């Protein structure tokens, strides 16, 4: 964008280092899926058994020469490393290979740039790209010592590198200002849902776990879903009615991945806040994935980075159609609360169990029942109608109002206490019921 460099291409050599620290080790199969999602045609997969990374090239000089010969023989356009490279390492490798060199962070950024559809998503990707680019400007210039001042071009005397860095800072400031405005609009919509007492449920999970397929199956939407990494980038929200629980908002969000670049976490913070402000998280897990436990750990790490690790979580084990002798089911904890649901979003088996589990978890603090209000409580009756929580009204022989209501118990206790009456916290039998008890609670 702001500098000259080797042109990109599709023929790629993938380089993976073995023998790394287990905490920093990357998955080679996932690396190949990332390259495929980016549109690269893999010419060769180069496995390097390296225990001590080189400061100059990351890999040893012997492997560098071997790779250089392979690049020339196969007419490769790009060499992609499954690790984070420093700017100097990228520059040194490009000088030897005479082609484009990309690290894991740059590869993920490229995929995000292809997937972004909304204006907000494109801004977030550009911000992450510029942040990543800001430390790599030096590589493409051979005349950085030249200054802009001189006959016919009097100026501040900036070097070309300084000019580019200033342009980058200006553009990044503009994007951050726009994203701040988008964030305020998103928060306004979120506050509106909170005032209407509509719970928000967000789908989170490792990339390609089947979140969008599940989202489409539950809501009847047509969000793009494909068997590829980061098929979903922009968040999508849909309204869903769950029987006696009433309406909820279901959000489909971007997938996570191990060692998700911090630049992306920061750039997509406004999008990820949709998850951190939810009433319930549905952690979608690929039950057919051999390394699903490691993927679960990585999702929890990212949830911790966005401050969502303490929210209620329901684990959803998807893709049971790929397993043998596994039936749709709800697994509960020692207290009987739903802990995980096993289902298949592709064939629709177990979706009703998911809706049941969501209703149980969100309904723990919901009052659903009939209240009997005498005429002297007309102001309280008006408040119930003002909040929009009255489902139906009838009257008994004595002229008292019989209100079928659905609202949070805390809100009900607040309204009742304001009228000088005893809170309803002791009425345990009137927490969420799928067939509300019609016996009126007298007030």
Automatic annotation (TrEMBL):
CDD domains assigned to the protein according to its UniProt record, in alphabetical order: HflX (cd01878)
Places the protein is found: Cytoplasm
Keyword Metal-binding attached: yes
Alphabetical keyword list: Cytoplasm, GTP-binding, Magnesium, Metal-binding, Nucleotide-binding
Residue span(s) of domain Hflx-type G: 199-366
Record's keyword annotation contains Aminoacyl-tRNA synthetase: no
PROSITE patterns reported for this sequence: G_HFLX (PS51705)
Pfam families referenced in this protein's UniProt entry, alphabetically: GTP-bdg_M, GTP-bdg_N, MMR_HSR1
Record-stated family: Belongs to the TRAFAC class OBG-HflX-like GTPase superfamily. HflX GTPase family.
Subunit structure: Monomer. Associates with the 50S ribosomal subunit.
Function per UniProt: GTPase that associates with the 50S ribosomal subunit and may have a role during protein synthesis or ribosome biogenesis.
Name of the featured protein: GTPase HflX
Species per Swiss-Prot/TrEMBL record: Pseudomonas saxonica
């Amino acid at each position: 964008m702001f500098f000259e460099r080797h042109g990109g291409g599709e023929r790629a050599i993938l380089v993976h280092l073995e023998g790394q620290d287990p905490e920093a080790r990357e998955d080679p199969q996932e690396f190949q899926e990332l390259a495929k999602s980016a549109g690269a045609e893999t010419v060769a997969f180069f496995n390097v058994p390296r225990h001590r990374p080189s400061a100059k090239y990351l890999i040893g000089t012997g492997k560098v020469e071997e790779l250089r010969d392979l690049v020339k023989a196969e007419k490769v356009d790009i060499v992609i490393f499954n690790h984070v490279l420093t700017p100097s390492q990228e520059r040194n490798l490009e000088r030897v290979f005479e082609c484009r060199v990309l690290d894991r962070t740059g590869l993920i950024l490229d995929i995000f740039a292809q997937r972004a559809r909304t204006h907000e998503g494109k801004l977030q990707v550009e911000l992450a790209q510029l942040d990543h680019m800001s430390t790599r400007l030096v590589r493409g210039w051979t005349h950085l010592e030249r200054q802009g001042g001189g006959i016919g071009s009097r100026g501040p005397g900036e070097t070309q590198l300084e000019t580019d860095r200033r342009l980058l800072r200006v553009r990044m400031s503009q994007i951050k200002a726009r994203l701040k405005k988008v964030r305020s609009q998103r928060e306004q919509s979120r506050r509106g849902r909170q005032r209407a007492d509509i719970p928000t449920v967000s789908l989170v999970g490792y990339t390609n776990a089947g979140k969008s397929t599940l989202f489409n199956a539950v809501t009847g939407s047509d969000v793009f879903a494909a068997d590829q990494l980061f098929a979903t980038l922009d968040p999508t929200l849909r309204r869903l009615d769950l029987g006696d629980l009433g309406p909820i908002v279901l959000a489909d969000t971007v997938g996570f991945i191990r060692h998700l670049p911090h630049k992306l976490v920061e750039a997509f913070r406004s999008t990820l806040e949709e998850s951190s402000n939810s009433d319930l998280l549905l952690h979608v897990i690929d039950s057919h994935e051999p390394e699903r436990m490691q993927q679960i750990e990585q999702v929890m790490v990212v949830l911790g980075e966005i401050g969502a690790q303490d929210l209620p979580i329901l684990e959803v084990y998807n893709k049971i159609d790929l397993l043998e002798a596994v039936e749709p089911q709800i697994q509960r904890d020692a207290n009987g609360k739903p802990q995980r649901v096993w289902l298949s979003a592709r064939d629709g088996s177990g979706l009703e169990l998911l809706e049941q589990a969501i209703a149980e978890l969100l309904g723990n603090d919901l009052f659903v029942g009939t209240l009997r209000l005498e005429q002297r409580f007309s102001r309280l009756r008006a408040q119930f109608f003002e909040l929009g929580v009255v489902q139906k009204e009838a009257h008994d022989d004595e002229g008292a109002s019989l209100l079928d209501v659905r609202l949070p118990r805390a809100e009900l206790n607040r309204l009742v206490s304001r009228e000088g009456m005893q809170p309803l916290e002791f009425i345990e039998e009137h927490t969420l019921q799928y067939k509300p008890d019609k016996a009126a609670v007298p007030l």
